[in-house]
Amino acid sequence: MPIYQFADVIPVIHPSAFVHPSAEIIGDVIIEENVYIGPLAVLRGDFGRLIVKKGANVQDNCVMHGFPGKETILEQNVHVGHGAIIHGCCIGENTLVGMNAVVMDLTRIGKESIIGANSFVKARSDYPPRSMILGSPAERKREVSDDELKWKERGTQMYHRLAERCIKELKLVEPLSEVEANRPKLSWELTHVPKAT
Q1: Transmembrane region positions (predicted)?
Q2: Residue 25, domain member (yes or no)
Q3: Cα 15 to the chain's mean position, in Å?
Q4: Consecutive 10-residue runs of the chain (197 residues): their mean pLDDT?
């Protein structure tokens, strides 16, 4: 996987974290335990430090980039959906950033919030905990419900398990030329997944 030193700073990746081989990790990046970094994600710590705390995930095609002289932080169990951009901000613990959302410089998102897909959060925004943040430009619409928070937490737990499984089970192979008899199916130990309201 492409891991780059920038100036005198080398990225730090905990051994229990999974970073996909196509992701790029550059400079002052700290990735803690049981983090999942997806395919083609770019974490570019060449302006300021990026910290991805324990149990967070940064999914496919996401960009995380710093603001000069500031830390960009994903707190514990933050869940960043496909294609999102995290730029020079702090995302509070157990928050969901929806697919293709953009969160701009010097913004603070309170813990247990949900940022809707395709939302644009303006620079220097500040949201309290459990905010449902939607729109472009984004606004706080209401408080996140208990059921929505459980739904979010279930998705994050799946990414904890995915990080563990990818370390053990993801392998680079040549494709088969045809579907084999008795093709195996992926197995996930899923019980009830709460619906978002």
Answers
A1: none
A2: yes
A3: 18
A4: 92 97 97 97 97 98 94 98 98 98 98 98 98 97 96 94 93 93 83 44
Residue 185 lies in a domain: no
Structure tokens, 123: 């620079």
CATH number, domain containing residue 91? 2.160.10.10
Q: Cα(first)–Cα(last) distance of the chain, in Å? A: 39
pLDDT tens digit sequence for 25-35: 999 999 999 99
- Residue carrying structure tokens 């939302």: 119
Q: What is the pLDDT of residues 156-180, one digit of tens each?
A: 999 999 999 999 999 999 999 999 9
Number of domains in the chain: 1
Rounded to two decimals, the pTM is 0.92
Domain assignment present for 99: yes
Show the domain range for 95.
3-143
C-beta pairs of 50-59 under 8 Å, 24+ apart in sequence: 52/78, 53/78, 53/93, 55/156, 55/160, 56/32, 56/80, 57/156, 57/159, 57/162, 57/163, 58/86, 59/83, 59/84, 59/159
